[in-house]
Amino acid sequence: MTDADTGWQTARIAAIVPQTAEITSFFFTLERPFRHRAGQHVDLRLTAPDAYQAMRSYSIASAPDDGSTIELSIERIAIGEVSPFFHEVAAVGDDIELRGPLGGHFVWRPTDAGPLLLLGGGSGLVPLMAMLRQRRQQGVATPTLLLQASRSWDDVLYRDELLADAARPDGPLLRFALSRSAPLRPEDYGRRIDAAMLSEALALLPAPPAMSFICGSNGFVNTAADALVALGVPADTIRTERYGG
């Protein structure tokens, strides 16, 4: 296992697990195992028979471990060049070019001070899931709140795992914001994330967040980050990651 070599390598698809109607998890066995940090990503590269190449970055969903296998949850983007291949063509046993782990700004370590605020929009939950999984696996008791925005109950990525984690005595606080359906839990919301909702979320933490991580579309990230700053959260404690097409 190496922490330094982030160059291109071959990764084999070991398993494919549908998560929601539009998001599927792909588990890759690495030719050269590495240990990533929660929040990092990898690049995947596809090469067509005519040598045309397409590359996209995907956050790692799995918690840092021995690094022999990583999980990427890929959302189907109809006009995309890479995600349709994975949803329509890729099969267990296929070899894919992969580079990483990459990124050092949007990362969380179990030793970081808390409280911790996580804001996810759709598949923007993926890097936050790596943080929550590491928190659980290492028994970290840092006060943590996840506010996840999704279209509906069935569109919540990793929903059952999140609910089970939140039910543990030292589990994170969990709130869902469903934009296209009514909430099924009394503590959840039936609208998009807004300033009032974030104010309520901050009040649930025992102290202001030492770190806030926001991941999702450009609009989601901008709205959430601006609202947090307006509510008094220092901008230098906010980390953002934006997902493109």
Quick structural gist:
The chain is 20% helix and 32% strand.
Please name the CATH architecture of the largest domain: 3-Layer(aba) Sandwich
Largest sheet: 6 strands, antiparallel
Question: How are strands sequenced across the largest beta sheet?
Answer: 4-3-6-1-2-5
Tally of contiguous helical segments? 5
Q: Percent of residues in beta strands?
A: 25-35%
Number of DSSP strands?
11
The CATH superfamily of the largest domain bears the name Nucleotide-binding domain of ferredoxin-NADP reductase (FNR) module
What is the H/E order?
EEEEEHEEHEHEHEHE
Structural classification: alpha/beta
- Described by the principal axes of the CA atoms, the overall outline is globular
Number of individual domains: 2
Low-confidence parts, pLDDT < 50 over ≥5 residues?
A: none
Integer-rounded radius of gyration: 18 Å
Structure description:
- The chain is of the alpha/beta class.
- The protein folds into two domains: 8-102, Beta Barrel (Elongation Factor Tu (Ef-tu), domain 3); 116-242, Rossmann fold (3-Layer(aba) Sandwich).
- It is 20% helix and 32% strand.
- The chain has five helices and eleven strands; from the N terminus they run βββββαββαβαβαβαβ.
- A six-stranded antiparallel sheet has the order 4-3-6-1-2-5. Strands 9-8-7-10-11 form a five-stranded parallel sheet, with helices on both faces.
- β3 (41-47) and β4 (53-59) form a beta hairpin.
- The longest helix has 13 residues, at 125-137.
- It is globular and about 55 Å long.
- The model has no long low-confidence stretch (mean pLDDT 94).
